[in-house]
Amino acid sequence: MNQNTGIAGIKQRKFCVQNGRMDLMRCSYDVYFCDTGPFMASTQQSFLEAAHKTAADKELHRKLNYNIGKYADTVKKGKLQYHDLELAKQRAKNLKWKAISNLDKYLIEFESNFTKRGGRVVWAENAEEALAEIKSVMKRVNARSVVKSKSMTTEEVHLNDFLEKMNVEVVETDLGEYIQQLDGEPPFHIVTPAMHKSKEDVARVFNEKLGTPITLTPQELTMEARGRLREKYVKADVGITGANFILPDVGGVLVLENEGNARLTVTFPKVHIVIVGIEKVIPSVNDLPLFLPLLATFGTGQKVTVYNTILSGPRQEGEVDGPDEMIVILMDNGRSHLLAEAEQREALYCIRCGACLNACPIYKNIGGHAYQTTYSGPIGSVITPHFKGMEEFKHLSYASSLCGNCTEVCPMKINLHNLLVFNRRDAVKQGDYNSAEKFGWNLWKRSMLSRKLMDLAGSKMKNRALKYLFSKSWGTHREMIEVAPKSFSEMWKERETH
Known about the structure:
By secondary structure, the chain is α/β, with parallel strands linked by helices. The protein folds into two domains: about 35-335, NagB/RpiA/CoA transferase-like (Rossmann fold), CATH 3.40.50; about 435-495, no CATH class. Helix content is about 50%, strand content about 10%. It has 23 helices and 13 strands. It has a six-stranded parallel sheet, sandwiched between helices. Mean pLDDT is about 90; it is low at about 1-40.
């Protein structure tokens, strides 16, 4: 695909390209929640404040280290199923390159095959168009209750809040998402929404919100949730899911899960809505034997996810279950901004396994909520500035040590740490910096290029400058850095004179 065309003009949809980028409206629902209440879209200052708080939370670190440690142990076992893991990763990356490079063709192929079986496809440029379609369906079928399986795209458009404002009851059916919904929090992690909670925390949430005994075991808590959710499935008017993959050749979407809740979500309600990002395409259903084990291994350490369901339309003649109506919303919402970037578009290869989050030293220190975005960790720091705007979210690309661990663990071999650097470069090129930043970096550049200027300042002046600049950040929890009394060049000159 030509990088200057994106997916504009597909089937004469409402996509409009200007200078190689789709002209997309910003979503007006950018409200996130943390333990201090709602706040608007992330800014550098609010991010730093949240990161500062969680970085000092020893109890949070204990829980994260425990849960991520268990994940790491299972992933080691999952990798044993591969004879040549690197070859599998490279093949998967090549297939995603093919899919993204021919995205316009594959999306049209999907629509054609899906509609042949009675399904309906809606193309949404942004979150507002996706929500408008959902609102239309809710009103048309007079929906009063919705069951929803785990989906990051629905989190992206803040669907739950939107439906609640319509007086529609919406219930998360994934256990982790259900816990987070009860506690009034967004997901903490792409794959494991309640990763930051211990079993005692979950018991507390159930006790406070559902009135269950605080002494319930994890097994008892699970049974309690199961009993309550079963009632919701039967009574729901609409079921809403995301999708892990779009399969154009069979006109289907693939939904992966380990609990069976997604299957119940699409079986009982008469209407099934899928909201999925356009980048989730893979070339063929025949590629699943490669992608399914990779996603399972790096997502949870399993050989394969327990339930792998291909959904290709509403209930057909002679079938005993399934919805009367199935709608797939293909959502852009900033993805074409990223597609237009030749160097960074490989971030669209992501299959949302969450491996980069679990490997990232920044994520493990500040946690998912500190990012104040739908997608956290390295992948979130790469894609969010393109989805939501570089000016507001460029700071996320600096939330990295550039250690490269995220790139090393990625099953799609996305060069995440390099993409973070490209984002930093683009922010500077676009002028997304203030005068203080510009002055500081120019001063640093001039000093670093001149040994005379470096030595002229002297150690006392350098230490005063470091204290002035970093005493409230570095110096709050650490001993301040001190420059040696003499620089290396000064000591070298003294050595040469003797």
